[in-house]
Design goal:
Layout (H helix, E strand, L loop, with lengths): L11 H54 L9 H6 L4 E6 L5 E5 L21 H5 L6 E7 L10
Antiparallel strand pairs: 1-2, 1-3
Bound molecules: zinc ion.
Length: 149
């Protein structure tokens, strides 16, 4: 890039050169901003792809081996990766439900596996029990209607 500083006072030649450089700098602003936007879009697409793969990896592991549930993506990553639903089963009464991750009050940086102990079964809560949830899989859409979260 051209030098940005000129000694003052400016000669006629310097003024011409400066005005030319200012025009070029203004044009570059637009070009560089467009390149930045393009790079951000590419980066976001890559992160979305990575988040999706993370969700798929967890689903394969949970399905194939039933765990371990840790590591898992964060709520944010699951939503960004296109898996905004979590299918869980109560470890006591076996009631299944779909949890809308976007509707949870937990911070979006919470790991999905940390939800196992925090999502309570309403049936068992009525019986004064607090069994942990078994995490079944992350899903792109709900399988069944969720009466509560
Ligand atoms: Zn239950």
């Amino acid at each position: 890039m051209a030098p940005k500083h000129h000694p003052t006072p400016l000669s006629v030649g310097d003024r011409k050169a400066l005005s030319k450089e200012l025009g070029r700098a203004r044009a570059m602003t637009t070009i560089l901003a467009a390149q930045a936007a393009e790079a951000h879009a590419k980066g976001e697409a890559l992160i979305r792809q990575a988040d999706k793969l993370l969700c798929e990896a967890v689903n394969e592991r949970w399905w194939a081996d039933g765990g371990p549930v840790d590591p898992s993506p964060t709520i944010d990553q699951a939503i960004n990766g296109g898996y905004p639903w979590l299918e869980i089963e109560c470890s006591r009464c076996r009631t299944r439900r779909d949890v809308d991750l976007a509707a949870l009050l937990h911070p979006s940086t919470t790991f999905v596996h940390d939800l196992a102990s925090r999502l309570r079964c309403s049936k068992c809560a009525a019986a004064n029990r607090r069994p942990p949830a078994t995490l079944l899989q992350l899903a792109q859409r709900p399988r069944q209607a969720a009466p509560e979260t």
